[in-house]
C-alpha cells in the first residue's frame, strides 16, 4: 500500500504540472456544451425525448467522460512505457524483490479514473441550469465510479499490451480510437446501427460502460442496453451481464499488462 500511494502521488504531481491537462480537463467540456451540444440539442431535442426519454444534450454529455477515460490513459501510456524503461521506476524495478507491476498500473489507473470522474462532475454541474433530467442514487453513484475505473483500467492495460506489437504511434492511436469511438455510442444511440455494426458495438466494452452510466443517470431507454443485448433478458440482468463483461475484460488485460510491463525495453518504445 505505501508503494501504491507513492505511485499515485507521483502521477498526480506529473499530471497537474501539464498545462495541456487544464485546457483539456476544464475548457473542453464547457466549450463543447455551449457550442456543438446546445446547437444539436435545439435541433434534435424533441425527437430524443420521444424515443429515449431524455434530451440530446444530457445523452451526449454522459458519453464525454468515457471519451476522457479513453484519451487520458491512451495519451500517457507511451510515456509511461518509456518512463518504466528509463526513469526512476526502473530503479525500483531492479532493486525490488516484490511483484509490484500491478501497483504501478493501478496507481496510474486510479489517477486517470479520478480525472474522468471530475470531468463527469464538471459536466453535471454545468448542465444543471439547462434542466438536465438526471437522477441520482447511492447505488448509481457507486456503479458509475466502478464503471469509469474499469474503463480506464481496460484502456491503460490494453495500451501496454499494444505497445508490444505496434510499430508506430500513429497506427497505435488509430487502432484504438477508430473502432472504440465510432462504435461505442459516445455520440449517438447505437439502436439505429445496421445489424452487423450493432454486433461490433455490443462487443466493444466501452459500449457497455456508457450504457451503464446512462442507465443510472438517465434511465433504461437512454441507456441503449436493450439494443446492445438485442432485447434479451430483463434490464437488471442486462446491467449485471454488462458489468461482468467489463470486469472480466479489465482483469484479463491487467494480468497481461502486468506480465508484459517488465519486458518492455527501450528498443521497443518508438517515438
Automatic annotation (TrEMBL):
**One GO cellular component term noted in the UniProt record for this chain:** ATP-binding cassette (ABC) transporter complex
Annotated ABC transmembrane type-2 domain ranges read 20-264
Q: What is its main location?
A: membrane
What residue stretch is flagged as signal peptide?
none
Bilayer topology annotation: Multi-pass membrane protein
Q: Name one Pfam family in it.
A: ABC2_membrane
Q: Which UniProt keywords apply?
A: Membrane, Transmembrane, Transmembrane helix
- According to its UniProt record, where is this protein located? Membrane
Q: PROSITE patterns given for it? A: ABC_TM2
Single GO MF descriptor: ABC-type transporter activity
| Ranges annotated as spanning the membrane | 21-41, 61-82, 103-128, 134-158, 165-186, 198-218, 239-261
Q: What is this protein identified as?
A: ABC transmembrane type-2 domain-containing protein
Which species is this record about?
Answer: Candidatus Marsarchaeota G2 archaeon ECH_B_SAG-C16
The opening ranks of the lineage are: Archaea, Candidatus Marsarchaeota, Candidatus Marsarchaeota group 2
Amino acid at each position: 500500500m505505501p508503494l501504491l500511494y507513492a505511485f499515485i502521488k507521483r502521477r498526480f504531481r506529473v499530471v497537474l504540472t501539464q498545462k495541456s491537462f487544464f485546457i483539456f480537463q476544464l475548457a473542453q467540456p464547457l466549450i463543447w456544451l455551449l457550442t456543438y451540444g446546445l446547437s444539436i440539442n435545439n435541433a434534435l431535442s424533441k425527437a430524443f425525448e420521444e424515443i429515449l426519454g431524455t434530451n440530446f444534450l444530457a445523452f451526449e454529455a454522459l458519453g464525454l467522460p468515457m471519451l476522457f477515460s479513453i484519451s487520458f490513459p491512451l495519451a500517457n501510456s507511451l510515456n509511461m512505457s518509456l518512463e518504466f524503461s528509463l526513469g526512476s521506476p526502473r530503479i525500483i524495478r531492479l532493486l525490488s524483490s516484490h511483484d509490484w507491476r500491478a501497483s504501478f498500473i493501478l496507481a496510474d489507473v486510479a489517477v486517470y479514473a479520478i480525472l474522468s470522474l471530475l470531468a463527469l462532475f464538471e459536466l453535471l454541474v454545468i448542465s444543471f441550469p439547462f434542466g438536465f433530467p438526471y437522477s441520482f442514487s447511492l447505488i448509481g453513484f457507486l456503479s458509475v465510479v466502478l464503471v469509469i475505473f474499469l474503463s480506464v483500467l481496460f484502456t491503460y492495460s490494453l495500451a501496454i499490451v499494444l505497445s508490444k506489437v505496434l510499430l508506430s504511434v500513429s497506427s497505435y492511436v488509430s487502432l484504438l480510437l477508430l473502432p472504440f469511438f465510432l462504435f461505442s455510442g459516445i455520440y449517438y444511440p447505437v439502436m439505429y446501427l445496421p445489424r452487423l455494426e450493432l454486433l461490433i458495438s455490443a462487443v466493444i466494452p466501452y459500449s457497455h460502460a456508457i450504457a451503464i452510466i446512462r442507465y443510472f443517470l438517465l434511465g433504461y431507454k437512454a441507456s441503449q442496453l436493450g439494443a446492445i443485448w438485442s432485447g434479451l433478458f430483463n434490464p437488471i440482468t442486462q446491467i449485471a451481464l454488462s458489468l461482468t463483461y467489463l470486469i472480466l475484460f479489465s482483469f484479463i488485460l491487467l494480468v497481461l499488462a502486468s506480465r508484459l510491463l517488465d519486458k518492455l525495453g527501450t528498443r521497443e518504445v518508438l517515438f
